Amino acid sequence: MREFETQECEPLPRRQSVELAALRRHDDTAAAELRNSLPLMLAGILDEVPGAELGLTMLADPDGMVETAVSASPGDDSTALITEIATALEPIAEIAVRSNQSVRWLTRWPVVPEIRHGSLGFAAREAAQAKATRWCNGGDAMSTQLIDDLATLPGQGIEVVLRAVSTAPEPRWEAQMYVVTGGDEPSLRLRAALRRRFAGLQVASSPSDAAVWLEVGSTDLPALFAIPVAGSEAPLGAYTAAPAPIVVTPSRIGDPEAGLRIGEAVTNSGRSTPVLLSEQERLRHIHVLGRTGTGKSSALAGLVNELAAGTDGALVADPHGQLCDRILAELPDEARDRVWVIRCGDVDNPVPMNPLAETDPVRRDIAIADICATFQYLFDRNATGIVGPRFQERVAMTLRALASAHGSRASLLDVPIAANNDAFMDEAVKSSGNQRLQNWWRIDKLERRSNERGEVLAWVNSKFEPFASTAAMRGILGSGADAIDFAEAMDNGRIILLDLSKAELGEAASRLLGFMYLSRVWHAALRRRRPDRPFTVVIDEAHTLIAGALTSMLAEGRKFGLSVVLAHQYLEQLDAGLRPAVDGNVATTIAFRCAVSDAGEVYKRFGGRIDTSVLVTLPELTAVTLRTAQSEPSQPHTLIIDHNRRVTPRTGQDLDAHVADLMSSTWADLVDPHRDLTAGAVAGASNVTTMADDSTLPKPGVPSTPPPVPGRPKKPTFLDDWLRQRTGETEVAGDRSTDTNAAEGSQ
Q1: Per the record, where are the segments of Pro residues compositional bias (predicted)?
Q2: Mean pLDDT for the chain?
Q3: Does residue 107 surpass a pLDDT of 70?
Q4: Which of 411, 521, 613, 691 has the highest CB neighbour number within 10 Å of its CB?
Q5: Domain for residue 75, yes or no?
Q6: Does residue 318 fall inside a structural domain?
């Protein structure tokens, strides 16, 4: 190792600098264009500040990570210069502006022209130190960047200093280039790399050799002032940053203050602007997609908070309960009177639901048909015969018998019990006045064979086990009571937080109950009196619920003022029936950081205008959205979820008191009026027996009428005479037998 005198190590000049802390990825075509255009843009800015110089420093640390900075030396307006540089570099990197760069002692080795006659790469002039040497880039076309070479050379780097010369007749600049080290000689690999990249240049033999100004034009400047730009793959030695925000074009149609705020975006000028969804966009539905922990729950919480602050209603279906808890903590005070909190796993406070709670016979028949369709969907979606016409007929007729006996209190869970109770069915069918039901029951009794009947009943009853498998489900579905008129709730702007916690209910019951609630909401939407008042159904972890009515909501909900917001992690989670409905009907897509397998699909949905590398590297609380229901053409843009900055949640005793107040009001409205009924259902009681005391139906084993009071003897019938004669003959025969035995004994 050669020895160098102390004076050969000198500090880098003090300059204001912009550090490229981490590089943002671009598609390869865009990256190639930026590598060419960005140095020219910075040089053009330099031309406007007389006396200023730009510096590019790239130095590898011991781990091979390359520290890159663009600096500005004092000129007429260095502060404005560094501000403009930072703005220019922000699209390609996360930046940090250093106003007072710390002094770093490094050895600077000039890079100078090779002293060879007619060498390729530069044209020598007389008095080289007085005038710059014209340099033309004749190096090899490189598939890698200079930063890739430096990443393999810890403790070594390069520095380029640039100054303006003239702008006419064509722009030209002068540059000095140095190799910087911590005191050691530049390695042979670095020397070879520079020869390969910069034809006609070499590292000086000593740090004390005079530096040479090289004159370059716009064609050769990008190769010399080589600012690193990441393509689809980040270069070696560079940290990866989040993609630069994709700017939004402000709408020129409509009231900018009207709409539901879902976050903020960045305009061309760098100004933040709120993103508002119009009512029309909401009614065309919203799809929120992204990996766990990327910001989906914050987006949903912000959306519901905005709805609560207004007058529109919503149902939030949450299979874990955490989103409901967060919404409660952040709920605006003005929405307290509109909120119901339904904890489906709370066995002590069940909110009863009854899909048969219809007084109108026509609507009751529709409800029965929907229940049969539910069984078909749940147990035999592909119509393989597991649930067929015979099953549906038996369930439908038993439900009609229950409705005849119990009216709007008929319970779905009573089907297995009623089907096994002939006494109940006889009376219920008889009192129904429904000739079709009576004819079915008569034929069913005539065609019975003991072994087949048991198999049929066991086959039907087994399908009801998921509905009654837990005390919570029995409390909700078993009493026959119905606590919520969803049509009225939707028209009144109710906010219903539905906690379908799997931890309390179990996964199967959570999915089934969510399915039934969505069905109730959909059928209520069909008979709304105020479809002009939007009602939003928000479904977190949409893949955990059975789709059911969701497909109808997506296809037709807009006509009835129904908006759907679906959130989940990746596209393959959606079942085969729901995925086409989402692709065909959702107008607003909010894509957070995607799984690699989804990036290609989202790329297609965005019309090929967002590179997949952007979609898989988005930071938390940042998404790309495309809103196709706008009244003017739209482009994808970055959506920043700012809800966490704008809302302060309640905590501690304030939160406890707030939640207790809301739960108390919910129980008063939905639970307390039905406690006597739900308590029995939780314990496993059935309306088939418990309602017999209040109806004309007999209890099993008890006669339907009291025993007759003895009266005057009636005129003997033929049967009476025959029985009396038969009795007389028996008595005579007995007497004869007695006489014969006595005679034999006397002998």
Answers
A1: 700-711
A2: 85
A3: yes
A4: 411
A5: yes
A6: yes
Say whether both 68 and 92 belong to one domain.
yes
* Residue 607 tokens, joined: 């019309």
pLDDT at 209 over 50: yes
Beta strands across the sheet bearing 588-591 = 272-277, 260-266, 637-640, 622-627, 588-591, 286-289, 562-568, 535-539, 313-318, 495-499, 339-343
- Which residue is associated with the tokens 């710059």? 132
The answer on 319 and 207 residing in a single domain is no
Of 482, 514, 539, the one marking the end of a domain is 482
Q: Please count the structural domains in the chain.
A: 3
Query: What integer pLDDT is reported at residue 153 of this predicted model?
Result: 95
DSSP string, 480-507: ------HHHHHHTT-EEEEE--HHHH-H
40 and 173 assigned to the same domain:
yes
- Does residue 26 lie in a domain region? yes
Q: Which domain holds residue 382?
A: 352-482
User: Quick one: pLDDT band at residue 469, thresholds 50, 70, 90?
Assistant: confident
Entry field: residues in the chain: 747
Query: Which residue has better confidence, 104 or 261?
Result: 261
Q: Give yes or no: residues 478 and 615 share one domain.
A: no
The pLDDT score that the predictor gives to residue 215 is 93
Asked if 536 and 584 sit in the same domain, the reply is: yes
Residues 401 and 538 in one domain: no
**208 and 120 share a domain?**
yes
Residue 442: CA count within 13 A, CB half-sphere: 7
Instruction: Choose the final residue of a domain: 677, 710, 725.
Output: 677
pLDDT at 448 over 80: no
Give the CATH number of the domain where residue 323 resides. Answer: 3.40.50.300
Distance separating alpha carbons of residues 264 and 272, to the nearest angstrom = 6
C-beta separation of 53 from 161 below 8 A: yes
Give the 3-state secondary structure of residue 571: helix
Distance in angstroms (rounded) separating the CA atoms of residues 464 and 4:
89
**Cβ neighbours of 607 (radius 10 Å):** 11
Q: What would the mean pLDDT of 136-155 be, rounded to a whole number?
A: 82
Report the alpha-carbon distance of residue 410 to residue 718 in Å, rounded.
Answer: 48
**Residue 709 clears pLDDT 50, i.e. is over it:** no
The pTM score is: 0.79
pLDDT the model gives residue 379: 85
Q: Does 271 fall in a domain?
A: no
pLDDT score recorded for residue 76: 56
Please name which of 672, 677, 667, 678 lies closest in space to residue 340, comparing C-alpha atoms.
Answer: 667
User: According to the per-residue pLDDT averaged within each range, which of 2-16, 378-392, 412-426 is highest?
Assistant: 412-426
pLDDT at res. 426: 94
Backbone angles phi, psi at 296, to 5 degrees: -65, -45
- Burial class from Cβ neighbours inside 10 Å (0-12, 13-18, 19+) for residue 242 reads middle
The runs of H, that is alpha helices, within 526-587 are: 550-556, 578-585
Pair of tokens at residue 362: 């026509």
335 pLDDT more than 90: yes
